[in-house]
Specification:
single chain, mainly alpha, two-stranded antiparallel sheet, 13 helices, elongated
C-alpha cells in the first residue's frame, strides 16, 4: 500500500476518533451542566433560572472540551473556528435569515390549526409574566446555541471529514432526532420530525460553514412555538409566561400534547425549508464554501530553456531572405484625365 493511500485512511480514522470523543463529551457535559445548575437552584432558590443556568454551564463545558480536542488534533486553531462561529461581516444577516425561516416554519404549521378553530388561547399579562418572558427568550437563545455547538459545531464537521457530507448529515440528523425525543412521550412521527429538523440545521451549516444561520433558525423555531404561541416544544409546555394555548382537534393536525412537532403537516414544511435554505444561501455558499482556485499552467515570467533559444536561432538563420513584392499597377494614375 502506497503512502498516498495510507495518509487518507489515517486522516479518516483520526476524524472518527475525534467525532466519537466529542459525542462522548457532549453526553458528559450535559450531565455535568444539569447537576451544576440544580446545585445552584437548590442553594440560592433560583428555580426560574434553572434552564438558563443549565444552558450557560453546557456552553462553557462544550467549548472547553472541543477546544482541548482540537488542540490535540491541530494546533493554532482559533476558538471561534473550533466551535463553528467564525467572525465575518454577514453573521448577523445569516442569523436573521435563519430566524425568519424558523418563524415562517412555525407560522405555517400553526396557521391550519387556527383556521380549523382548534386553538384555545389564554393571555397572562402582569409584571412577573413579562419578566419570565424576557428570561425565557434569553434562555431559549442559549439553549439553541448549545444544541448547535453540541451537534453541528464540532462533531458534525469531524464526521463530515471522515465519511463525507451526505452520510454525515444522515447520521448526525438521526443522532439529533433520537437525542431530542429521548425520555419523552414521543411517537414515530415526532422522532421523524426531529430528524428532519436536524437535516435542515445540517444543511444550514453545509451552505454557510458556520452556525449563525442554524442558530437563528433553531432559536426562532423554539421561541415562536413555545413562547409566542404557547404550544409545547418537544413535550415541554412551560416556556411561555404570556400565552397559554391548547390545541384540541384531530391528532394529525394538532399533534396533541406534542404540538406541531407531532403533526402530519410539519414534515412537509421541513422538507420545503431545505429548498429555501439552499436558495437563500446562494451568495454565502459561494463566499464561504467553494474551494479556492489554485493557479496552474506554465509560468510566464521565467526565461526559456537554453535548448529552446538555440532552436529559435537555428530557425532564424535558415529562414529565406525577405522578398519585396511590387504592385503590378503603376503608381501613376491608371486612367486618362477627363477631357
Amino acid at each position: 500500500m502506497s503512502l498516498s493511500q495510507v495518509q487518507p485512511r489515517i486522516h479518516r480514522s483520526l476524524q472518527l476518533a475525534l467525532f466519537a470523543a466529542s459525542i462522548t463529551w457532549v453526553i458528559a457535559a450535559n450531565l455535568l451542566a444539569g447537576r451544576a445548575a440544580r446545585g445552584l437552584v437548590v442553594r440560592f432558590q433560583l428555580s426560574d433560572e434553572y434552564l438558563l443556568l443549565d444552558a450557560v454551564f453546557l456552553i462553557f463545558l462544550l467549548i472547553t472540551g472541543f477546544a482541548v480536542l482540537q488542540g490535540i488534533a491541530a494546533r493554532n486553531t482559533p476558538l471561534r473556528e473550533t466551535i463553528g462561529l467564525p467572525r465575518r461581516p454577514t453573521c448577523r444577516a445569516e442569523w436573521a435569515t435563519g430566524a425568519a425561516i424558523g418563524w415562517g416554519l412555525i407560522l405555517f404549521a400553526v396557521l391550519p390549526m387556527a383556521i380549523a378553530g382548534d386553538l384555545h388561547i389564554r393571555f397572562w399579562i402582569d409584571g412577573r409574566s413579562l419578566w419570565l418572558a424576557g428570561l425565557n427568550l434569553v434562555t431559549v437563545a442559549l439553549l439553541a446555541l448549545a444544541a448547535e455547538i453540541a451537534f453541528r459545531g464540532y462533531p458534525y464537521r469531524r464526521l463530515t471529514d471522515a465519511i463525507g457530507p451526505a452520510w454525515a448529515t444522515v447520521l448526525m440528523s438521526v443522532i439529533y432526532g433520537v437525542a431530542a425525543t429521548l425520555g419523552q412521550e414521543s411517537t414515530y412521527l415526532s422522532t421523524f420530525i426531529a430528524v428532519l429538523l436536524g437535516a435542515v440545521l445540517c444543511s444550514a451549516w453545509l451552505r454557510t460553514h458556520g452556525l449563525w444561520m442554524g442558530w437563528g433558525l433553531h432559536f426562532a423555531w423554539i421561541a415562536s412555538l413555545g413562547i409566542l404561541f404557547g404550544l409545547p416544544v418537544a413535550g415541554i409546555d412551560n416556556l411561555s409566561s404570556l400565552v397559554e394555548t391548547r390545541a384540541i382537534g384531530a391528532l394529525w393536525l394538532t399533534g396533541g400534547d406534542l404540538g406541531p412537532e407531532g403533526a402530519l403537516l410539519t414534515p412537509f414544511l421541513l422538507i420545503a425549508s431545505i429548498v429555501v435554505v439552499v436558495v437563500v444561501t446562494r451568495d454565502w455558499a459561494w463566499d464561504y464554501t467553494r474551494k479556492p482556485l489554485i493557479p496552474a499552467g506554465y509560468p510566464m515570467d521565467v526565461p526559456p530553456p537554453a535548448a529552446h533559444e538555440e532552436m529559435e536561432k537555428q530557425a532564424a538563420s535558415a529562414a529565406p531572405a525577405l522578398v519585396q513584392i511590387l504592385p503590378t499597377t503603376p503608381q501613376t494614375r491608371s486612367v486618362e484625365p477627363d477631357r
